[in-house]
Amino acid sequence: MVTIRDVARSAGVSIATVSRVINSSPRVSDDARRRVHRAASKLDYWPNGTARSLTTSRTHVLGVLLPDLFGEFFSEVIRGLDHTARDSKFQILVSSSHADTRDLIAAAQSMRGRIDGLIAMVPERGSAAAVRSLVRRFPTVVVNPPAAIDSCRAVSIGNYEGAHAMVQHLLGLGHTRIAMVKGPPGNVDAEERLRGYRAALKAAQIEPDPGLERPGDFTESSGYQATEALLRLDPRPTAIFAANDYTAVGVLGRLRDAALEVPRDMAVAGFDDIAISQYLTPALTTVQVDAYQLGVAAFRAFIAQLRSPAKRGARHEVLPTTLVVRQSCGSLRPSAPITRYRRQAPAEWSTAAAAPKRRPAARKGSGA
Amino acid sequence: MVTIRDVARSAGVSIATVSRVINSSPRVSDDARRRVHRAASKLDYWPNGTARSLTTSRTHVLGVLLPDLFGEFFSEVIRGLDHTARDSKFQILVSSSHADTRDLIAAAQSMRGRIDGLIAMVPERGSAAAVRSLVRRFPTVVVNPPAAIDSCRAVSIGNYEGAHAMVQHLLGLGHTRIAMVKGPPGNVDAEERLRGYRAALKAAQIEPDPGLERPGDFTESSGYQATEALLRLDPRPTAIFAANDYTAVGVLGRLRDAALEVPRDMAVAGFDDIAISQYLTPALTTVQVDAYQLGVAAFRAFIAQLRSPAKRGARHEVLPTTLVVRQSCGSLRPSAPITRYRRQAPAEWSTAAAAPKRRPAARKGSGA
DNA sequence: TTGTAAGCGTTATCAG
DNA sequence: CTGATAACGCTTACAA
Q1: Stated in angstroms, how far is A91 CA from C10 C1'?
Q2: What is the DSSP code (8-state) at residue B12?
Q3: Of A313 and A266, which is predicted with more confidence?
Q4: φ and ψ at residue B86, rounded to 5 degrees
Q5: Distance, CA of B213 to CA of B182 (rounded, Å)
Q6: CA-to-CA distance for A88 and B101, rounded, in angstroms?
Q7: B112 → closest Cβ in A46, A111, A243
Q8: How many CA atoms lie within 13 A of B60 on its CB side?
Q9: Do B123 and A279 touch (CB under 8 A)?
Q10: Which residue is nearest to nucleotide C11 (CA to C1')?
Q11: Mean pLDDT (chain B, rounded)
């Protein structure tokens, strides 16, 4: 392993000079600089980041703590983080899939000294205390904080606003008995979406009916089961708002098995706008969440905090969501045939057309 | 920042003793151990990983270099890596989205000293030299190596075998004029899939027809365009094998716009088995690639190499793929109606039923 | 069983 | 402009 000493010896200078050249300090003679560069490239010298960090106490690494997400959401957040981090020469130390709070803290603990800050996404309402202990140690940005956390920045998905907008949309289509299949209890996203649902109903003078709120856990099968229960109600709801798109897939499945036609017999709405939503039959009306932007915003908040630690006051950015109107709720506009493959999307698709932005044209590697 | 010194002072012992306790060395008296533990937890001491690494030259971090993948593939590979790494107490330093070889090397360079090894996924045929320079520096596992690389392990997707199996399947259904929409030139996955396609044809005494091999780049629009060209041929192909599922989506789109019915008028096959494939109309027959297992295998190969650096001989593991027969090519069996939502998949779905394994039931966070 | 002290590979502070 | 040398926080011989 070639060190700074080897380069110094080979260039006939001291290690201090090599260090200066490497860090492009101006106080070096052209001659010395040249010799050092030559020696470094001859020996193929790569500075040791760990040693560097030890003296400078900067790592240029951002820690990322994520729950056991999977699929697009996870990867898009990471992509947003990584892309933005790259511009600031940061790399990302990821630790995901934490079973519990102890796990989470253990992961953070082993990051001590290796990172300049932390992005933590902890969707469980119960783990606010754990998050606080992280915030004490690292400059932290919390994504979807489980509770108000002092002296740390936060970035959230507009769950409340998105759900509110969706229910308003359904109300606008004439629905009044709107059911909701909820997400897992204790999950922050789920709770916020529920809150938005209820608020929108109340704003329309409709008292939320507990019988129309069915338990669910963000899975397809929970949507299937909840729908089964909803179909037994009399009178039935005329619309089902699922807490996320996977749940909506289950809802659609149960309706199909019941030979009900969507949206004629029942309107169905989801949340997230995952990739499959536009390919469902009928295509799913949903609330688009931009996971990539979530990553971008989180990194920006981190950098801002790093640059001005003085104002570590809690700032909370809520990312806007977009209502994507497709076929599953019917539409105010005449429903166009599904012809996704035109070169240019027709103007009336403004909402749906937003999706491709997240999917770059040139894909390398396995296309999946 | 509380260091080992603070703990030593507070416990009334030397830093060596603290270190021994932290690393649970047996050569410490119970009394000292107790006092150190007490002091450590009182001061809330977390050891500095960087300092630790500097002396031990072990980091317990695995570097991961990825191209600009997106979507499930990316996240599933990372999940597989991360899950497996967790068992060995490893964390993952990710750097993805490299524009070019220089970018890649720069990222690796800044990992020097921070990682114990490297997983590199470099799908461009042209970057074999860059990969070799990585292999010299780190214990490296190459995913889908662009060329034979000495003294490093490799894990590959069974691109060749998968494509071969798919073409055999099409041949078995009676097709003889089978077109292929290729992937990006220079991309290893794409080239291997093409090779498998040609080999299967030759094995059936059919000379591959260059006119039936259309350029593509793993994108939906390239599938659309390639199909346009294929439809002008006379005689037309009776089946189109797309280099990946995204491309197949474009193929299906163009066929729909041409009012052709799939699979009656044209069989369509894809590669990857992305999430949307089973929701397309008709559901896509494709080759399933298990990205999660790719991550698992890559980490295992890394650990094996770390444990016995003696046998650094190049071992190349090729992950099996699975043929997933759905509706888009027709089927040897009577085509069942699409009823995905039964609690239990009917037996005849053995292949398609494999997919859900990759999608765990309990999803936390935003469901996307 | 414990403590002292020599590294690990850098950067940074001094003198020169 | 350059070179010694003291950190950085920890592990690990080596001594006691």
Answers
A1: 20
A2: T
A3: A266
A4: -55, -40
A5: 7
A6: 19
A7: A46
A8: 19
A9: no
A10: A55
A11: 87
Nearest-CA distance A240 → chain B (Å)? 17
Please name which of B67, B201, B51 lies closest in space to residue B123, comparing C-alpha atoms. B67
Three-state SS for B234? coil
Q: For residue B75, which residues of chain A lie inside 8 Å, CB to CB?
A: 69-72, 74-75, 78
In whole angstroms, D4 C1' to A17 CA is 12
Q: Rounded distance, CA A223 to CA A218, Å?
A: 8
Nearest to A341 among B67, B110, B250 (CB): B250
Span A149-164, pLDDT tens digits: 877 899 999 999 999 9
How confident is the model at residue B150, as a pLDDT? 75
Give the confidence band of B357 by pLDDT, cuts at 50, 70, 90. very low
Query: What distance in Å separates residue B243's CA from the closest CA in chain A?
Result: 9
- At the fourth CATH level, the homologous superfamily of domain A4-56 is lambda repressor-like DNA-binding domains (1.10.260.40)
Homologous superfamily, domain A61-157+291-318+345-353:
Response regulator (3.40.50.2300)
What are the structure tokens assigned to A73, written together? 């959401």
Nearest to B72 among A60, A68, A72 (CB): A72
Domain residue spans of chain A: 4-56, 61-157+291-318+345-353, 159-288
- Give residues 37-76 of chain A lying near strand D (Cβ < 7 A): 51, 54-55, 57
List, as ranges, residues 43-62 from B with C-beta within 8 Å of A: 46-54, 59-61
DSSP A329-362: T--SSPPPP--TTSSS--GGGTTGGGGGGGS-S-
Cα dist from A159 to A274, A328, A355, B83, B325, whole Å: 15, 20, 18, 29, 38
The pair of structure tokens assigned to A226 is: 């909840």
Task: Provide DSSP, A101-118.
Answer: HHHHHHHHHTTTTT-SEE
**Is residue B368 scored above 60 in pLDDT?**
no
- Which residues 65-104 on chain A approach chain B with CB closer than 8 angstroms? 66-76, 78-79, 82-83, 86, 89, 91-97
User: Would you report the helix, strand and coil content of chain A in percent, each value rounded to 5?
Assistant: 45, 15, 40
Instruction: List Cβ neighbours of A363 (8 Å cut-off, separation of 6 or more).
Output: B68, B69, B70, B217, B218, B219, B246
Supply the pLDDT for residue A70: 66
* CB-closest option in A112, A279, A366 to B272: A366
Q: Which of A305-314, A334-343, B225-234 has the lowest mean pLDDT?
A: A334-343
List CB contacts of A249: < 8 A, sequence separation 6 or more. A220, A223, A270, A276, A280, B279
Residues of chain A in contact with residue B92, where contact means CB-CB under 8 angstroms, are 93-95
Q: Checking DSSP bridges between strand A239-242 and strand A178-181, what pairing results, if any?
A: parallel
What tens digit of pLDDT does each residue of B238-267 get? 999 999 999 999 999 999 999 999 999 999
Q: Which of residues 259-288 of A touch B (CB under 8 A)?
A: 271-276, 279-281
Query: φ and ψ at B347, to 5 degrees?
Result: -60, -35
Percent of chain B having pLDDT more than 90? 72
For a pLDDT cut of 90, what percent of chain A falls above it? 73
Confirm whether B61-157+291-318+345-353 and B159-288 share one CATH topology: yes
Mean pLDDT of B43-67: 96
B295 interfaces chain A, CB cutoff of 8 Å: no
CATH for A159-288, among 3.40.50.300, 3.90.1170.20, 3.30.565.10, 3.40.50.2300? 3.40.50.2300
What does each C-alpha distance from A259 to A235, A281, A282 come to in angstroms? 18, 14, 14
Strand D, nucleotides < 7 Å from a protein CB: these are 1-5, 7-13
Q: Give the Cα separation of B278 and A249 in Å (integer).
A: 12
DSSP labels for A249-260? HHHHHHHHHTT-
